[in-house]
Each structure stands twice: as C-alpha cells, then as structure tokens.
Write a structure and sequence with these properties.
binds flavin mononucleotide, NADP, globular, 8 strands, about 210 residues
Length: about 210
C-alpha cells in the first residue's frame, strides 16, 4: 500500500473503546495495540478527535494538544517495534468526502464500511454494494462490515477490495491474522465490554491461541 509493505491483508478496523480518559490516550492502549500487531500488519487507530469541538463520545482520544500527542508516542512506538503500520483515524463530526475528491488529493487508502444488511435484523445481504466506490477510487481500497475469514477471502479473490478490516473479531482475537492463517477457531466477542471504562477487562484479556486451546 503506497510505500508500506504489508505482509497480509487482515487490517485492524478502527474501534472506539472509550478508555482515553479526558481525551488523553492511556498507557493501557500500549498493550492493546501491541497485542494486535504483527510484522507488516496495518492497524487503523480508533477515531481520534482533531479539536475539542470534534467530540461525540466521552473518553475518546484526541490529537490536538501537546499532552495527547505525547501520550500517543509510546503507543505508536510499541506498534512500530513489532513491525506494524499504524494510521490515525482523524475524526470530526460532519466530515464529508467523495471518491473523486479523494483521488484529486492523492489519498493513500479509503476504508469503507459495507452496509451488509438491507434491514436491521434481516439477514438479507446487499452484496457488492461498494463495487462502484472500489472502481472509482484509485488508491488502496479497504472494506469492512461483518466479514469473516471466508467472505473476506472471497472479496479479495473477486478483486472487490485490496484489504479487509476486521472490527469485532479483531477486538476479541488479538492474534486474528495468525488464526486466519491456521483456520483456527475464534474467541467470541462480548458486546457488554465494548465501551466500558475498564483498562483490562474486554480490552487486553482476550486470550491468544496458545492459551485458549
Ligand atoms: C466497539 C466498536 C467501535 C467502533 N469504532 C469505530 C471508529 O472509531 N471508527 C470507525 O470508522 N468505525 C468504528 N467502528 C466500526 C468498525 O471499524 C467496523 O467497520 C465494524 O465493526 C464492522 O466490522 P466487523 O463486522 O468486522 O466488526 C466500531 C465498531 C465497534 C464494534
């Protein structure tokens, strides 16, 4: 992807976890992101506010003060130390964009969440809904939204994406690329702990393959 040499196509999707107390990234994020890093992997950080007016939820990280920037550094260093490529997802309410303007500005990647279901609670898929975007956008195209190992592979095989981002599965499986490689069973995610403030529970205590079998 651009100048970045990725070793596999399993991306950590951006996941808001609401553990950056008072909008400052915390040391527990070092372990969390580092657990989810493998050599040559792409990680997209949780949505990160660019100003104090950008905030929509409490305890989400920011990157507009010196303190926040300094607090990100050990987290980024830990990801780099394990050979990961780390992008910050900058966020502001009201952001708009489209593929033509993305091309014009030479944007490296475009990450889109597929509306997989036509109606809430109905398991009727809307297949290939991002294909027009994929065709219009010249850079690296990353899809997300309800993918598992099998249909992620299918999207790649059919050239509907360059990379596949995983949210809930990666949240619950720090070694997701390894598990996909081995076709190993996955830990189940616990929705109850997605957004709790705890710095460990449901955050860095999901077991790796070695300890879960
Ligand atoms: C706990 C949680 C937090 C999320 N936070 C963000 C976020 O900060 N930015 C974003 O673009 N998407 C966010 N998403 C969407 C995910 O990046 C992903 O697109 C979505 O979970 C669908 O992928 P999945 O089916 O593999 O989980 C979040 C999803 C979950 C479950």
């Amino acid at each position: 992807m651009g100048k970045f040499d990725l070793s596999h196509r399993v991306v950590l999707a951006p996941l808001t976890r609401q553990k950056s107390y008072h909008n400052v990234p915390q040391p527990h994020a070092i372990l969390y992101y580092s657990q989810r890093t493998s050599q040559g992997s792409l990680l997209i950080a949780e949505a990160t506010g660019v100003s104090d007016t950008a905030q929509g939820y409490p305890d989400t990280p920011g990157i507009w003060t010196k303190e926040q920037v300094e607090a990100w550094k050990p987290i980024v260093d830990a990801v780099h130390a394990k050979g990961g490529v780390f992008f910050c997802q900058i966020w502001h309410v009201g952001r708009v964009s489209n593929s033509e303007s993305l091309n014009k500005y030479g944007i490296l990647y475009c990450h889109m969440v597929e509306p997989r279901m036509q109606k809430v609670g109905e398991m009727q898929e809307t297949p290939h809904s991002l294909v027009p975007m994929r065709k219009a956008f010249k850079g690296t195209f990353i899809v997300a939204g309800g993918y598992d190992r099998e249909d992620g592979n299918k999207a790649l095989a059919e050239n509907r994406a360059d990379l596949v981002a995983y949210g809930r599965h990666f949240l619950a499986n720090p070694d997701l690329p390894k598990r996909f490689e081995l076709n190993a069973p996955l830990n189940k995610y616990n929705r109850q702990t997605f957004y709790i403030s705890d710095p460990v529970i449901g955050y860095t205590d999901y077991p790796f393959l070695e300890t879960s079998v």
